[in-house]
Structures are given as C-alpha cells and as structure tokens.
Amino acid sequence: MLMRESLLDKEVMASTESPVVRMLPDVHVVKIGGRSIIDAGKEATYPVVEALSKLLESEKLILGVGGSLE
After folding, report:
1. Contact present, 34 and 66 (Cβ < 8 Å)
2. How do the residues of the chain divide into helix, strand and coil, expressed in percent and rounded to 5?
3. Distance between CA 53 and CA 22 in Å, rounded?
4. 8-24 per-position pLDDT tens digit
5. What predicted TM-score, i.e. pTM, was given to this entire model?
6. How many CA atoms lie within 13 A of 33 on its CB side?
7. Measured over all CA atoms, what is the biggest interatomic distance in the chain, rounded to whole angstroms?
C-alpha cells in the first residue's frame, strides 16, 4: 500500500492511523537536553539529578540525554 506513495499524502496517513497503545503505561519518559542542562555545568546538573533520584523512589522513569549542537 505504501509503495510509490508519498508518506505525507493525507489519504495514506489516514489509512494507516490506529489508536495509540502505550507500551509501558506506568513509565514516564524524561529527555534532558545537552545544551540546556548538561552543558550548564554542575550548578544546573546536580539539582536535576537530585530531583530525578527522588522521583525514582516512587516512579518508573526512562531517562534520555541529548547532546548539544556545538
């Protein structure tokens, strides 16, 4: 069905829509930006790590860290 079709075509997009199924419904995903947090040094990073460590006591988290663009 997708062969020789634009994936941006509204009809193709509509024909492939399905309900969202959360694979891990009890997990929160947190993405930490490299430029906004990590590159700012320990003054910014340590409070974030401390807050996340407190959250890990009661919540399941998936942590992702992005690199800066520089």
Report:
1. yes
2. 35, 15, 50
3. 24
4. 788 877 887 888 888 99
5. 0.58
6. 7
7. 52
